[in-house]
Write a structure and sequence with these properties.
The chain has two domains: about 5-240, L-fuculose-1-phosphate Aldolase, CATH 3.40.225.10; about 250-285, no CATH class. The protein is about 40% helix and about 15% strand. It is built from eleven helices and nine strands. A nine-stranded mixed sheet has the order 2-5-4-3-1-6-9-8-7, with helices on both faces. Helix 5 runs parallel beside helix 9 (about 190-195) and helix 7 packs across helix 10 (about 220-240). Bound molecules: 1,3-dihydroxyacetonephosphate and zinc ion. 1,3-dihydroxyacetonephosphate binds near residues 74, 115 and 185.
Amino acid sequence: MKVLDAKFVKEFIKTTELGFSLGWHERNGGNLSYRIKTEEVESVKENFVAKEWQGIGTSVPALANEYFLVTGSGKYFGNVKENPEENICIIELDDKGENYRILWGLVNGGRPTSELPSHLMNLEVKKKIDPDYRVVYHAHTTNIIALTFILPLKDEVFTRELWEMATECPVVFPDGVGVVKWMVPGGKEIAVETSKLMKQYDLAIWAHHGMFAAGRDFDETFGLMHTAEKSAEILVKVLSCAPQKRQTIQPDEFRQLAKDFGVTLPEKFLYEKEAKNLNSEKELEINVY
Ligand code: 13P
Ligand code: ZN
């Protein structure tokens, strides 16, 4: 089968198109990876031509000898649909999980995304917890980024605020959201910090940069990113209208929701908020948390 006829490749391309249409992928912003199933590799491997081995920049032994479909570094999501072979590639890892080689794609040259260490370390953590996890998606989600300038960079605060802004959120991401303070992107250090959070969460925010989502398939992963970003958009809108919320969902109401929807919501996110004196100048600063 031609690579572009494979279902997983079509779904990958559709995901880049959806993200681009929502404005999360200015220029070459964002990247996407998919851990390819054995039978899917078999179905397209007749097209593979191996290039030379290159270092990943980190070590992912639990992913040794696996195959991935990834976006190219410096490539624009907006161009993937029209020219997939120029903008995405299939790579294979060596038997130590330390090197990769390109087998298909990037026909005009290039290399996989500069965030390959983060993608692979996240996929490795997720595979160890649940082998069905296959997708990692990084997007420059505008409203989540905006909130990293005004909310404390704490998992508890971001989780609670996102949960409050859309009732579906605690059901869609009951484990919560992790936050990585600002770090230089593109290397092992930020990959290590992000993959630590991926042990607990399916979503990790990069302060002043964007977000990573992980999931079992493209719909689930994209849907997760979309849900969190929409919730952030609602909070940005609310804070643009008023310095505080007049009413919101309360901890006991979350507990009731958890019971009815059969999800477990960690108590660390259901903290009591202090009553604020909104008459003082200081408290009129953003005080949603
Ligand atoms: P790449 O073009 O290398 O994928 O980088 C884009 C990006 O968003 C870096 O964080
Ligand atoms: Zn980025």
